[in-house]
Amino acid sequence: MTPPPGTGGQRGRSSLAAWLDRTRLPGSLRLRLTAVYGGLFLIAGSALLAATYGLVARQIGTRAAGLPRARELRVLARSLGDGRGATLRAIREAQANERANALHELLTQSAVALAFMTLIAVVLGWVLAGRALRPLREITATARRLSTHNLDERINLPGPGGELKDLADTFDGMLARLSAAFEAQRRFAANASHELRTPLTVQRAAIDVALANPTEESLRTMALRLRAATERHEHVIESLLTLARSQTGVDRREGVDMAAAAEAALTSAEADAGARGLRVERRLAPAPLLGDPVLIERLAVNLVQNATRHNVDGGWLYVATRADGRHVTLQVANTGRDLPQEKVAELFQPFRRLAPDRVVPGGVPGRPGAGLGLSIVAAIAAAHGGTCTARARAGGGLEVSVSFPVAPL
What pLDDT is attached to residue 88? Predict the structure, then answer.
């Protein structure tokens, strides 16, 4: 029997060794499937043999071919006179012997044929089981080869649809999600280290300048810069902790009114909005849902702060909440610079910015920007079973909508 082609994980090995590895008997699924195929064939063949034997035995009886019928035997016995009894017994014994020989021959030949066909069925079952399990071996070999360095590898199982094709496609989809998650983690770690290093660089530069010219004014300037850098540090760390918490899911759910959370966020942003001359429009209809109050509050604050920070002086800010019985929606829109629609989705990735002026420099107190606001919003929405969408406005600015199911999954 020609062994099936080896999987990618066994390239370079001899075909015989690869075939022996694939055909290990102890505990292998292929052996169990072969045993099932052979056992079912043996059971079905035995049942067919028993039925055939019974039917033949019933039909032979005293009507076996070449033997006289009972009425003919009586006529023959009368013609024989006094010796008819012995003659009848001899004829009946001959009938019984012939019947027994015929049934024995039938049973013997049928058993031999059944054994031979069972052997063929076992061999065919072994071959078919090997072919049927080949995709599983490919999946196993791919899984063994995978590491964080080659998550871009795929099975790409050819052939028509079926259970194993669906399994391979599902495995490929899982690998794609894992690859994206690992890449996002690498990017997140790199960006986080950069964001945390920037305030440290500012602090060190301020200290060096002050030490080079230790006057009262230089020390005061150093203190202000250190304070600004510390505030940025605190903001980045707090944002990272919130992002990590929201990505791990929601532990507790309580009744929360999205309208109240949005109102509180607007209140906290009143000073910044007033300083920039922003016109605030609100349409806050009651929007109750079950969720984590702290995370829901943070979501509303991030959206309002983002719309205030990345606005234009004298622009406007629109905040609305609504509930339709199935979903609760928070919508925040603002004026601002023109943004390319095809890149708006990137704003939901950590530390992703579309323009330099979307980031407030790390030395400005009270207005630190780390590029985590919308990524935290997306993570909180996902943790509550909701969705988050954004679109660039034609006249400039951004519109973000977050929708939560009233009964979260």
Answer: 62
- Gap between the Cα atoms of 30 and 126, Å rounded: 7
Cα 109 to Cα 6, 38, 99, 103, 232, distances in angstroms: 42, 20, 16, 10, 92
Q: How do 327-334 and 398-405 pair as beta strands?
A: antiparallel
Place of tokens 């300083």: 275
User: What superfamily in CATH does domain 181-405 come from?
Assistant: Histidine kinase-like ATPase, C-terminal domain (3.30.565.10)
Flag whether the pTM goes above 0.85: no
Q: Where are the beta strands (DSSP E) in 137-273?
A: 254-257
Beta carbons within 8 Å of 46's beta carbon, 6+ residues apart: 114
**DSSP assignments along 3-39, one per residue:** PPPPPGGGTTS-HHHHHHHHT--TT-HHHHHHHHHHH
3-state helix, strand, coil in the chain (%, to 5): 65, 10, 25
**Domain spans, the chain:** 8-145, 181-405
Q: Please answer whether residues 361 and 291 qualify as being in contact, where contact means their C-beta atoms are separated by less than 8 angstroms.
A: no
- Other CB atoms within 10 A of residue 328 CB: 28
Residue 106 CB neighbour total at 10 angstroms: 16
Instruction: Summarize pLDDT for 136-148 with one digit per residue, the tens.
Output: 777 788 777 777 6
Q: What whole-number distance in Å separates Cα of residue 265 and Cα of residue 299? A: 9
3-state secondary structure of 403: strand
Residue 78 host element (H or E): helix 70-80
For residues 304 and 262, the answer to whether their CB atoms sit within 8 Å is: yes
Sign of CA pseudo-dihedral 254, 255, 258, 262: negative
Q: Is residue 358's pLDDT more than 70?
A: no
Residue 247, classed as helix, strand or coil, is helix
Contact 339/354 with Cβ under 8 angstroms? Answer: yes
Residue 316 in tokens: 């406007």
Q: Is the pLDDT of residue 202 over 50?
A: yes
> Percentage of the chain surpassing pLDDT 70?
70
